[in-house]
Amino acid sequence: MSYEQAREELVEVVRKLEAGGTSLEESLALWERGEELAATCQRWLDGARERLAKAQAAHDRKPN
Q1: Which residues contact 45 (CB under 8 A, 6 or more apart)?
Q2: Rounded CA gap, 5 and 40, in Å?
Q3: pLDDT digit of tens for each residue in the chain (64 aa)?
Q4: Which family does it belong to (predicted)?
Q5: Other C-beta atoms within 10 Å of 13: how many?
C-alpha cells in the first residue's frame, strides 16, 4: 500500500469515527484499522527521511 493510499484510508477512518453512529465493535475495528494505517504512514515517512539523510550525506562527501 502506498503512503497516499494509507493516508486517504486513514482520513476516511477518522471521519467515520468522528461522525459517530457506529457500534462499539465497529468503532473498535475502525480504531484498530486506523492504528495499522498510521503505522504504515509512519514507516513510509521514516523511510523517506532515511533516504533523504543518505542522499544529503552522499552529497556532502562529494568534492566541490
Answers
A1: 3
A2: 10
A3: 999 999 999 999 999 999 999 999 999 999 999 999 999 999 999 999 999 999 999 888 887 6
A4: Belongs to the XseB family.
A5: 20
> Which amino acid makes up residue 44?
W
Residue 55 — φ and ψ, nearest 5°?
-65, -40
Residues in the chain: 64
On whether the CB atoms of residues 14 and 34 are closer than 8 A, the answer is: yes
- Select from 9, 7, 13 the least CA-distant residue to 48: 7
CA distance 8 to 1: 11
> What cell does 51 get?
533516504
Q: What pTM, to 2 d.p., does this model score? A: 0.81
